[in-house]
Structures are given as structure tokens and as C-alpha cells.
From TrEMBL:
Domain 4Fe-4S His(Cys)3-ligated-type: 118-157
Family matches, as PROSITE patterns: 4FE4S_HC3 (PS51839), 4FE4S_MOW_BIS_MGD (PS51669), COMPLEX1_75K_1 (PS00641), COMPLEX1_75K_3 (PS00643)
Gene3D superfamilies: 3.10.20.740, 3.30.70.20, 3.40.50.740
The protein's name in its UniProt record: Molybdopterin-dependent oxidoreductase
Protein species of origin: Oceaniferula flava
Family: Belongs to the complex I 75 kDa subunit family.
Length: 583
């Protein structure tokens, strides 16, 4: 850290600010009192290798890899005053033995060395012990490419082993749950998985047994790791001991592209990373956002993704002729839809949008309803019980956004009236996007059969698409850009990790072209990109002012107060306040 940063606060005023002066590798910095040594080193941009430590979990000091040398001013002899140098600090007396940085906190005038012969020799010794029984199977290990043991053995190990005896064999390829496999021979006993299940998931089914080099991690007798947050232990594992059945042996991580996005399975909007190659999604992992999902996400959400290679994907426009769908081009499908919709009075048409759509798509759905002159515009409600963790009771990812964009505090309120209108024949035509009306919207097959016109937009084949007169192929959540507002009122970005298959397009493009076809306006007058549409949205909705898609921060921005909190994040904040975790 530069000198300009180390002197931001006067040395003598540190205590008044709740700070302490700490020397790290010869440079003085100021950090909050009670900061763990490993976090102080992180502030000073000094790497301290570690395995067991994780800021969201308790610090047991298992691995001993985070050893540093510590020093404090020597205690003055009776009658003597402390001696200060020209820099205003007392001379530091260095301890002849190392201390762990993860479980010790800093003090005034403390010195920390992350380098030097003592520290380096100790780390080499620790690494040598960790590798004594570890198998030399990096070329076939699923963790290769993102293995901390592999990385630190190169950076901090000896480069050779003095161990000549046979390695102790431990259980391999053990099924400990429906989604996770354990290769215990690779385990370095960091206990991250055990602490996560105990402290975060609140289901302590993992533990250590035996002693010394025979120690193994395993599931409690008669139990399985079935918890819906169990796959977070795979993310936490610094080696290849725990692997996901879904991703195991599927692809090397260095071949995959990482795209930051958000989860669309519920209103929490957990921040995620989408891992892709060749327009195929290989896995979803949580991305840290302390205001939304911390470092975690539920298994049910990470495994529930729409991939361009799925067999049920819609890839071309369809028009029904004599009860059979036939592929057609976009121009014919748009012209046919517009001509058919013009045959109905405004009161006879309904537009059903979706809480799964982005703000930009909802904005275009509002424009479509306005162009048709209908007030029958609604989204579909998805209310289920919350899991008191990260899964919201609102299973729509963008209900809050729908309230703002549709300018309706109850955006699902007109759906019942639309259903009644279909039943009694007063509503004869429906345009529906990103919804299967036969599942959660409450419509029956008879309702759909009674319609004179049904135009649908969806990414996958379903019963609504089958009943539709005209079908437009839409993009999946991982194939489009846009923004959504989660249950707490945080505006977040959805980013495209893949390209829609075939002729599929994002909903906003489809609706824009349909509106243009209905109005007869030139296409040049409409937004030609999601960025342009986002800027129009930002000037139309007061809460989004200045928050077009390129201006939204990576962790999102709070745009409205909803009074809703996320249980897991709330509990984590309490643990941090109590000093149980760094957070």
C-alpha cells in the first residue's frame, strides 16, 4: 500500500476513530480495532495463503497455512518510558515463532510479516504435511484449474516431497447425498463443509471421525446430505474432495466462459456466475453480494436453468393451419399476428405479461397494451412458502419491477377478470409472453380452446404453445440482457451468457416489432438495442432515473423501499455484529 494511503488518518487520532496502527511488511496502515490479522493483510494487499478460513464462517484455525510472524513493542523496564522512533512508533520486537492470522486480531503498534525465512519455512512444512497422503491425481481431478491446494503448493510449497512411505488410502467416490460425491482421499480437513452445514444451513450432518492421518470427513450414520443448500459445500471445498454430480467430469474450468448475472427462480435475485462453452451452460455458481445472497444459493435454483441446447426449445415462428403448426418466417408471423389482432375490439383483447420478464420487456408489454387500446394487462402471481433462507415466497423474479414499470401496485390483480372474460366469451384474443397459462395462471384447456386468437411468446414448447394460433420463439433467462428489481427493491442486471437458438429472440424485440406492425410506424423510430430501450425506460420511470442498464453497478442499486428483508442475509448480519464471523 502506498505512503499516501497509509497516512490518511493522523497516527495519534487512530484511537479516536476506532482504528489501530499496524505495520505489515514494513508499511504502516490503519485498520479497525478487532480486525483479524488475515483481513488486515488483505487491506494491505498482502496475500496470506489459507484453506480453513472463510469470512462467512467461524475461524477454527485448522489448516495452519495462514502462519505469519507477529511482533509487538518490548515491555519497558521498571522506571523506563517507552521509546519512539522518528516515525512516532515504538520499535517492534519480533516473536521467534509464527501465529495463525485467521484467528488472531491486530493491536496498536503491532507488526506483521507475511514474508521472510521463518514464515516461508513454516508454510513449506505445513504444505508438506498436507500433501503427505494427498493423491497425485491433478490431471484427472475435477478441481484442477480452481484448486487452492494446487495453487498454493506451487507458490508456497517445497517443490518436492521427502515422504517415501505408502500413502494412507481413504474412501473414494462416495455418494453422501443425491447431488454430491466425496473423494475423501483428497480432503485436507479444512472443515469448511462441516461449518457451513452447521452454521449457515443449520443442518449439521457432516463431521470428522478417527484421528491423525486417519481422520476422515463423512456423513452422520443414517443421514444423507439432502439439504437444498448442500452444493454450497462444493463451492467452499478448496480441493477436489466434494464434487457436484451435475458438473462432475463434464468440462475443464479453464475452457469455460464466466458471465455475471442474476438468478431468475424467485424474487431474491441471487447473484450468480453462468459458466458456458460452445453456447451450452455447464454450471451455475453463486456470486458474492452481501446485500442479496451473501456467497450462497439454493441447489434447486442453480440446477434449474434453461439451456439453448435443451430438446424442448422453440427455435422458429409457428402458425397453426388446419390444427397443425407450420414453421414460418418472422415477417409472416408478425404480419399475421397484427392482422388478426386488428379484427377485435380493444375490450376483447387481453395482454398477459410475466413477472419473469425484465423491466425492458415489461415496458414493451405495456406499450403493446397501449397500442391495442386494452386495459386488460396483468402478470401471473407465483406465491409459495419461503424457506426462511434465500428462496422468497414470491417465485417471480421481477414482481417489484412489474409494479414500477406497469405503474400498478397490484400487477396481478386483473388476471382473474381476464379468466372470467375468457370463460364468458367477452375476451376473445390473448397475447401472452413467458407464461404457460395452463400451469400457474389458472386457465383450463377449455378456456384456451374457446379463444378465437392466442398469440404466445415462450422459450420452450408447452401446452400454451401447443394451443396457440401463432407462436414466437423467445430467449431464455441466460440468453438476454435486461434488468430486474428484487423483493428488497434492488435493481440488478441480467446478462446474456449464451445466444438464443435458431430464430429465437428476446421478448422485447418481438413485442417491439409487433407494436410497429400494429402501428404501421417505421422501424427506425423504435429502440434498436437493449441499451437504447433501457435509456427510454430510465427516463419514463422515476425510480429508474439515471439507472439505464450500463449505469447499474455490478451488485445492483436500491431504487425503492419495499420493507422486505432476506432471512439468511439478516442472520448473517447479526452474526457479524456479534463478532462470530468477519462477514
Amino acid at each position: 500500500m502506498s505512503d499516501s494511503n497509509t497516512t490518511q488518518l493522523p497516527k495519534d487520532l487512530a484511537a479516536e476513530k476506532g482504528l489501530v496502527n499496524v505495520q505489515i511488511d514494513g508499511h504502516w496502515i490503519q485498520v479497525p480495532r478487532g480486525t483479524r490479522m488475515i483481513e488486515a493483510c488483505k487491506i494491505a494487499e498482502k496475500e496470506v495463503p489459507h484453506y480453513c478460513y472463510h469470512p462467512k464462517l467461524s475461524s477454527p484455525g485448522n489448516c495452519r497455512m495462514c502462519l505469519v510472524q507477529m511482533g509487538m513493542p518490548p515491555r519497558p523496564a521498571p522506571g523506563e518510558e517507552p521509546k519512539y522512533g522518528d516515525d512516532g512508533f515504538q520499535e517492534i520486537g519480533w516473536m521467534p515463532r509464527p501465529v495463525i492470522a485467521c484467528a488472531n486480531t491486530v493491536g496498536e503498534n503491532m507488526g506483521i510479516r507475511t514474508q521472510g525465512e521463518l514464515v516461508e519455512k513454516c508454510r513449506e512444512g505445513v504444505m508438506e504435511f498436507l500433501l503427505i497422503n494427498h493423491p497425485l491425481d491433478c490431471p484427472i481431478c475435477d478441481q484442477a484449474g480452481e484448486c487452492r491446494l494446487q495453487e498454493f503448493s506451487v507458490g508456497y510449497g517445497k517443490g518436492q516431497s521427502r515422504f517415501k512411505e505408502d500413502k494412507i488410502k481413504k474412501p473414494k467416490n462416495v455418494k453422501i447425498g443425491p447431488r454430491i460425491r466425496l473423494d475423501d482421499e483428497r480432503c485436507i480437513m479444512c472443515s469448511r463443509c462441516i461449518r457451513f452445514m452447521d452454521e449457515v444451513a443449520d443442518e449439521p450432518v457432516l463431521g470428522f471421525s478417527e484421528r491423525g492421518t486417519h481422520t476422515t470427513v463423512g456423513i452422520f450414520p443414517g443421514k444423507e446430505l439432502t439439504n437444498n443448500y448442500g452444493l454450497n459445500t462444493v463451492d467452499l471445498c478448496p480441493v477436489g474432495a466434494l464434487t457436484s454430480n451435475d458438473f462432475r467430469f463434464q468440462m475443464r474450468t479453464w475452457f469455460l466462459k464466466e458471465t455475471s448475472s442474476i438468478d431468475t427462480n424467485c424474487g431474491t435475485g441471487a447473484n450468480i456466475t453462468v459458466w458456458t462453452r460452445g453456447n451450452k451452460i455447464f454450471r451455475i455458481t453463486p456470486r458474492q453480494n452481501d446485500e442479496v445472497n451473501s456467497c450462497w444459493m439454493p441447489d434447486s435454483h442453480r440446477l434449474n436453468y434453461i439451456c439453448p441446447t435443451d430438446e424442448d426449445r422453440l427455435t422458429a415462428c409457428l402458425i397453426k393451419a388446419d390444427g397443425i403448426h407450420e414453421e414460418t418466417c418472422w415477417e409472416n408471423a408478425l404480419e399475421a399476428s397484427a392482422d388478426a389482432l386488428k379484427q377485435f375490439d380493444a375490450s376483447e383483447v387481453a395482454v398477459i405479461a410475466s413477472g419473469k420478464q425484465t423491466n425492458e420487456e415489461l415496458f414493451m408489454m405495456r406499450a403493446l397494451a397501449a397500442e391495442l387500446g386494452t386495459e386488460n394487462l396483468s402478470i401471473v402471481a407465483r406465491e409459495k412458502e419461503s424457506d426462511d433462507m434465500l428462496i422468497s415466497s414470491d417465485r417471480n423474479p421481477n414482481t417489484t419491477g412489474a409494479k414500477l414499470v406497469l405503474q400498478d401496485e397490484y400487477p396481478t390483480g386483473k388476471l382473474d377478470g381476464i379468466r372470467v372474460g375468457v370463460s364468458n366469451g367477452s375476451i376473445k384474443a390473448i397475447v401472452v409472453a413467458s407464461e404457460n397459462l395452463l400451469e400457474e395462471a389458472g386457465f383450463t384447456q377449455d378456456d384456451l380452446n374457446a379463444l378465437e386468437l392466442l398469440v404466445s411468446i415462450h422459450h420452450s414448447a408447452n401446452a400454451t404453445a401447443q394451443a396457440s394460433d401463432i407462436v414466437f420463439p423467445g430467449a431464455g433467462p441466460a440468453e438476454k440482457r435486461g434488468s430486474m428489481v428484487n423483493v428488497t427493491g434492488r435493481l440488478q442486471k441480467l446478462n446474456a451468457a449464451c445466444v438464443p437458438p435458431g430464430d429465437a429472440r428476446s421478448d422485447w424485440e418481438i413485442i417491439r416489432d409487433l407494436v410497429l406492425e400494429l402501428s404501421g410506424e417505421a422501424s427506425s423510430e423504435a429502440p434498436q438495442s437493449i441499451d437504447a430501450l433501457s435509456k427510454v425506460l430510465a427516463t419514463s420511470i422515476p425510480e429508474f432515473e439515471g439507472k439505464h442498464i450500463t449505469a447499474i453497478s455490478d451488485l445492483g442499486d436500491l431504487v425503492t423501499e419495499t420493507g422486505v428483508s432476506i432471512p439468511l442475509v439478516q442472520r448473517e448480519a447479526e452474526r457479524k455484529a456479534n463478532g462470530e464471523i468477519v462477514g
